Amino acid sequence: MTSELLKNAAVAISLAFVVPGLASAATVDTVEAPTGYFVPSDDLKYDATYWRKAYEDWGWVHGAIASPFTTASLLISAFDVDYNQGERDEIFAYDAATMSWLSLGFLIGANDAWEFTEFVLGADLLDDVVNGLQVKMDIDSTNSGWYVTLAKSSLTTDGAAPPKPEPGPSVVPVPAAGLMLLAGLGGLAALRRRKTA
Fold it and tell me: How far, in Å, are 55, 118, 130, 154 from residue 104 at the CA level?
């Protein structure tokens, strides 16, 4: 009976890597310093290189994320977004099918705080996620004298958790399939110990 359990566990683990959709396709791709004008550390958030104003707009490209996945979100971590006081920093994504930039909306955040603004991507942009999503921002689109600093841009699929919003290197999460493998191996080890006892 124990060898049958071991065989079934091994089959389940191998299926998680072979059968599409059985294992989660949740993935995170984060763009951060030293790319572009993403600030490398909190103490540089007011540095003129990173704390940017109108007409200092810029863009970046996310790495390609392989399918299958069903949902995708873009989360942009920004500092000192005074949205409730009238600051408007607009985010765009490039749709290759229509060869046009689509407005995703505005960064929404608080005064003197690091916060993610999440933009849920529509089905029309999922093929762009597979090929590498192009993103750009229009800083202070109303030209009212606002400044903003970005820490990172995280592209997530199927509900993957983004890194912390503050500047600094992001920790790459262990994929769900990897966690399944670790759990399966732990179970196999426990069964083996039980069998020999």
Answer: 19, 10, 18, 14
